[in-house]
Amino acid sequence: MLARARYLLVVAAFSACAAIVGVTGMGSFPVSQNTLAFWLLEADNTPLVMVYYHGPAQWHDTEWKVDSQFTNTAVGWGELKCAKATLHIRVDLGAGRAEVQHKSFSLDENNTFLVVHTTDAQPKIIPLGHHDLLKTAQSPAAIMLLDADKTLKKRIENEVGSI
142: helix, coil or strand? Predict the structure, then answer.
């Protein structure tokens, strides 16, 4: 009976670990003259979290410094810095949390976000819910999500005036 209990414990522990996929990379794409999308990737290049950063016209048309930490573990982060803004995303899959601009959210509830007033001292983070995030294919993942989910695109447009 004890051997059977050990086997079940090992199987349960293995199953829990197998569900956690590493945070392995990031991507970004200028969606419009006002909006830059930034996302973190899991091992198969599927986005884990998608953030649309909105600001004044051409705010993102600048030189960016990139910093990140990806170690194929359950925690990873990426950061884009320019003279006007610092964009920061962190994911902790083990805890089921995403941080956008250092503010924590449940990944079960939200994996898509809009940040408005990106270049201001206090940007506003708007959780947009949990969406099916698609791998980059013919178009960047951020564009594919907006094309596939017209309700999401409309909500973003309502928040910012235009995407």
Answer: helix
Number of domains in the chain: 1
Task: Determine, yes or no, domain membership for 4.
Answer: no
Residue 163 domain-assigned? no
CA within 13 Å, CB half, 17: 8
3-state class of 87 per DSSP?
A: strand
Strands (E), the chain: 23-30, 35-42, 47-54, 65-70, 75-81, 86-92, 97-100, 103-106, 112-116, 124-127
Domain that holds residue 115: 21-158
pLDDT digits (tens, 9 = 90+) for 33-86: 999 999 999 988 999 999 999 999 999 999 999 999 998 788 999 999 999 999
User: What pTM, to 2 d.p., does this model score?
Assistant: 0.86
pLDDT at 1 over 90: no
What is the distance between the alpha carbons of residues 27 and 46, in angstroms, rounded to a whole number? 10
